[in-house]
């Protein structure tokens, strides 16, 4: 059985569980369960702290896992990214009291609070800066106000936590992070199926199916507007001057594409949701 690590708590846990469920796996029923088997799909789930998942996978104790790219890099584990999962996006940034810092070099000899010392230490070393890292478990934005650090390095999503603490972002982006599927490097049977299923969920979330009828003379221009994944499906209609076209379109572009197709002469433009996919 493929042994899969899943976040038990925190920002990534709910979406990770939802994605696995949409991919056809049976997850835990009780949110306090630490382990559950899904023999029908040949997998076992282990519910762990997202920060620890790279350690379990990197050591080979578990085969694959879902965690954040920032947590993977911070861990220094041998685990590697297999696929990105399209959620849990965040940016890792330096911040300090408004006006105090403008560039990275100013962190030399300064106290920087973070919960990600591996990630931040590696980044600073790569840029030739020697700061004194203050390791905290969370809520690092309070460290400056409370006097234990001069600056912080932390996850930024909306930026509202920083603003509330009177801090401003400065310096280069440390990392663009998102939820990722990681593996130990040794590919285990069943990993391919898991990856394809998760990618199917992403496609179903990110794309819609678009059907429309268009006069043959405008077909080339219409398929240029929405070229689809590989090539649009074109079917004859009873009227030989018209054809029916089916194509996948990114959900975010859907209305824009419908407007353009309509103005090209396409009619009966219909959008339907994709419930599952294997591409
Ligand atoms: N506000 C946020 N928005 C998006 N992603 C976030 C946010 N906070 C943390 N993450 C991502 O979630 C992962 C950290 O999850 P984790 O569960 O360890 O921390 P958490 O969500 O802060 O939970 P807690 O601090 O309660 O333990 C990282 O990959 C991080 O980039
Ligand atoms: O940019 P924002 O949208 O404000 O989000 C970023 C904040 O969210 C996370 O904190 P969390 O609530 O997980 O608390 P923690 O710092 O104790 O982990 C993260 O550590 C930042 O503090
Ligand atoms: Mg947190």
UniProtKB/TrEMBL annotation:
ATP phosphoribosyltransferase catalytic domain residues: 49-199
Pathway of action: Amino-acid biosynthesis; L-histidine biosynthesis; L-histidine from 5-phospho-alpha-D-ribose 1-diphosphate: step 1/9
Residue span, Histidine biosynthesis HisG C-terminal domain: 204-275
Reaction catalysis annotation: 1-(5-phospho-beta-D-ribosyl)-ATP + diphosphate = 5-phospho-alpha-D-ribose 1-diphosphate + ATP
Domain of life: Bacteria
Enzyme Commission identifier(s): 2.4.2.17
Gene3D superfamilies (alphabetical): 3.30.70.120, Periplasmic binding protein-like II
Compartments in which it is found: Cytoplasm
Enzyme type, top EC level: transferase
Family: Belongs to the ATP phosphoribosyltransferase family. Long subfamily.
Protein name: ATP phosphoribosyltransferase
Species the sequence originates in: Agromyces albus
Organismal lineage: Bacteria, Bacillati, Actinomycetota, Actinomycetes, Micrococcales
Designated gene of the protein: hisG
